[in-house]
Amino acid sequence: MKKLWLLLLYGFLLTISSISLAEEESAFNWQFGVGVGVSHNRNLLPAMDSPRNGIPQLQLLFDFEYKNWFAETPSLRSGQLFGVRSGRLLDDFTLGYRLSNSERHNLALIMASYHDGFGYSVASGDGISSSKLEGLHNRESDFMPGLRYQFYTTDNQLLSLQVNKDITTHHGDMLRLFYGFRFEQHNWDLYFNSELSWYSAKLVNYYYGVTAAEVRSGRPQYQSGSGWRWHNGLVGVYPLNKHWITELGAGINWYTQAFTDSPLTRNNPEVVSFVLIRYVF
Prior knowledge:
By secondary structure, the chain is mainly beta. Helices cover 14% and strands 44% of the residues. The chain contains 5 helices and 12 strands. It has a 12-stranded antiparallel β-barrel with strand order 1-2-3-4-5-6-7-8-9-10-11-12. It is globular.
């Protein structure tokens, strides 16, 4: 609920700021889809491996563009099924406002949540039972507004750079460099993506650190500096007809020692995969 109010407040402030801008196109373009998918995740946090692995889940997709506003879902960028992180019907997506936009370049204010909360009571609410989480304080989901620059080097290649700062929980920072390449093979649209992310020490320690009050047998105190994550993913989209599409994909994440040395985590890699059939209106 707090995140929803922050989205509304952020949107209200941006709307006020846009009054003085030049007149924009007012067409409302949208895409809504309903799908059923199966996913499998190997989480960096072994205690948070989803009990929903292999279980069909209903998923929703909603993208739109209106004037300079837009919303986008993460599946084609992250190799992750939209909504599978904690089994929500409609998961977090990126809401943004373009400050400038041309054929090859755009600069936008964006807002999204990049890390799910976890902890003993959170896991219990998600149907995950793990003694490894006993004594841990709950970590809350973050909310990280930021600035993103995108450059389309060709019609099917994208480079982007973004910087985000959390304003609700850990107050840490994230810097992300992304490369995406789309190509066609027979009737498949294939999306390869590679992403390098830097996370500040505040963010790493909030989610993966262990305070003195959380120390238990086999779980020593842990604090670290900043860390890096390297992601690679591949997603394939196959149209069955005008409205029905099939998506499948896989992604793999590699973390530096700031993450993997934590007593809460396991060794690399973190893996996510999915298969989905979707009806698009």
